[in-house]
Amino acid sequence: MPRLEGKVVLVTGAGSGIGKATALAFAREEAFLALADVEISRGEDAADEIIAAGGRAVFLKADVCNSEQVKNMIDQVVDTYGRLDCAFNNAGVAGDQTRTADCTEENWDRTIATNLKGVWLCMKYEISQMLKQGGGAIVNTSSVAGLVGLWGWSAYAASKHGVLGLTKSAALEYAKAGVRINAVCPSIVNTPMAESFTGGDPRVQEHILAQQPLGRMGTPEEVAAAVIWLCSEEAAFVTGHALAVDGGFLAR
Ligand SMILES: NC(=O)c1ccc[n+]([C@@H]2O[C@H](COP(=O)([O-])OP(=O)(O)OC[C@H]3O[C@@H](n4cnc5c(N)ncnc54)[C@H](O)[C@@H]3O)[C@@H](O)[C@H]2O)c1
Q1: Is residue 102 in some structural domain?
Q2: Which of 81, 125, 156, 174 is catalytic?
């Protein structure tokens, strides 16, 4: 039985990695997809893949840092499908690896604007729409770096800690209105972004894998499965939660 048949779902950062895998997973649950990304060709390819498999999908070009584009994105979802049931606010950047005192203002601003302000802007317009309909489910992508510090990644960790503060506060504010808001916190997942974390250096990759109790990277599909569950009725009593999908990283 499909778990999200006919539900209208928006995924940001849907052209690659975790976002793409999650959009495909929602489509397998027979949801109607809006895929947003700043990269047009990647996003269109992902939407085409869903349509070729018999699903419903549209691609919307949007930069999550830009309030006008985010508002237009939500308007376009509603113009296309008439409502918005679920949103996965996932677009993000790694930024540069640098210790705090060496972090440039440009790197700080870009990381916070994409990973934190971007999630807030998306939630702002998604929640307004969901309130008009009487409910919905939102999942934000944080990280294990939203729960612990990461050496050399302070701007990234600050952005991901911020996402959890935003998730929990909004979950309290809208619980009675029927909008559930949760976050996923992956550790290293095999996507193009993982290359940024390792710099393509096999020794760094080995070091990162040695910190994973399960001894491997996660797959984008394993994160997708958690997002689908959080959006489904099976998670009807779950809100304000930070769900680690981390191969045991945080249990150490
Ligand atoms: N891969 C990992 O190891 C890992 C671990 C923990 C958390 N995450 C988080 O998961 C999310 C997805 O990462 P991924 O690994 O799939 O990365 P990815 O680089 O494969 O995909 C990110 C997507 O987001 C899009 N994007 C970037 N900036 C955007 C913007 N301003 N507006 C719209 N789209 C934008 C990119 O074009 C890309 O398609 C990110 O928030 C990331 O921080 C990743």
Answers
A1: yes
A2: 156
Q: Which domain holds residue 21?
A: 8-251
How sure is the predictor about 197, in pLDDT bands with cuts at 50, 70 and 90? confident
CA atoms within 13 A on the CB side of 171: 21
pLDDT tens for each residue of 154-178: 999 999 999 999 999 999 999 999 9
pLDDT tens-digit map of 13-54: 999 999 999 999 999 999 999 999 999 999 999 999 999 999
Per the structure, the count of domains in the chain is 1
Predicted confidence (pLDDT) at residue 213 exceeds the cutoff of 90 = yes
Instruction: Give the Å distance between the CA of 19 and the centre of ligand 1.
Output: 7
DSSP for 139-157 reads EEE--GGGTS--TTBHHHH
**pTM listed for this prediction:** 0.98
Separation between Cα atoms, residue 123 and residue 74, nearest integer Å: 10
Contact (Cβ atoms closer than 8 angstroms) between residue 74 and residue 121? no
200 in any annotated domain: yes
At position 131, the amino acid (one-letter code) is L
**What CATH number should be reported for the domain holding residue 170?**
3.40.50.720
CA 20 to ligand 1: nearest atom: 16
Three-state DSSP class for residue 94: coil
- Among 10, 18, 49, 112, name the best residue to mutate to test ligand 1's pocket (greatest count of ligand atoms within 8 A of Cβ): 18
Residue 1 lies inside a defined structural domain of this protein: no
The minimum-distance atom of ligand 1 relative to the CA of 39 is: 37
Residue 3 counted as domain residue: no
Confidence band, pLDDT 50/70/90 cuts, at residue 205: confident
